[in-house]
Design goal:
single chain, about 220 residues, alpha+beta, Ubiquitin Conjugating Enzyme, about 50% helix, rod-shaped
């Protein structure tokens, strides 16, 4: 007990001295300040037995930080294993040192697991985003299946509306002309309504006498029409 107090002067709290020593000590992992969000710690209560160190001390968790029940049970199993290996020797210092190392490993493992989980989450988000833009790959078979379904749906819509393909097409001008025979003599009817006469403004042709309409110009090599 005197050796432990010399090694851990500020960490150990003596609870009882009789009939056997009982003390508390808070154990933290190394470099705990580097991982404030994962800094594990345990407050252990050691109680010596009548035949210590030939038997293991009674060990209990008084408190813990950032540790769940499974981790605490795992750590207790680890401590019991250390005691079994050191029976017959003062073992509290060995157990305390081993617990500190184990907490360091558990803390680093928790940090790595969280990092891996974050990387998986980002990878899954990136994959989901890529698939969202990539869409579904089209094969000949899938396209033909889609086209058959699409054609069937469009045919059903046209049937419901009473519209077929021929009626839905707008006729061309030629088709209108051929289908409407009255358009063949539309100009004749127009002339008949004017009394078969067409008035011409002769003043428009008063200056035509000045025009040279002789066809001989066509033979002139310098003539430019």
């Amino acid at each position: 007990m005197e050796a432990l107090q010399a090694i851990y002067p500020d960490e150990i709290e003596i609870v009882d001295e009789k009939p056997h020593y009982s003390f508390k000590i808070k154990i933290m992992p190394q470099d705990a300040d580097s991982f404030p969000d994962h800094a594990m710690s345990v407050l252990l209560l050691f109680t010596y037995t009548p035949d210590y160190p030939d038997s293991a001390p009674v060990m209990e968790f008084e408190d813990s930080e950032n540790m769940d029940d499974m981790q605490l049970r795992t750590l207790m199993d680890f401590m019991n294993g250390q005691c079994e290996e050191n029976l017959g020797m003062a073992m509290c210092f060995t157990v305390i040192s081993a617990v500190q190392e184990e907490l360091t490993c558990m803390m680093e493992k928790a940090v790595q697991e969280e990092k891996d989980a974050e990387e998986r989450r980002k990878a899954e988000e990136e994959e989901a985003e890529r698939k969202r833009f990539e869409g579904t790959r089209v094969t000949v078979e899938s396209f033909m299946a889609w086209k058959l379904k699409f054609d069937a749906e469009m045919a059903e819509l046209k049937r419901q509306k009473g519209i077929d393909d021929s009626a839905s097409k707008k006729p061309t001008g030629k088709e209108l002309f051929l289908s409407d025979k009255t358009m063949n003599d539309s100009d004749v009817k127009f002339l008949q309504t004017e009394g078969d006469t067409l008035e011409v403004d002769e003043s428009l042709f008063d200056d035509m006498g000045d025009l040279d309409l002789d066809d001989d110009d066509d033979d002139d090599p310098d003539y430019v029409p």
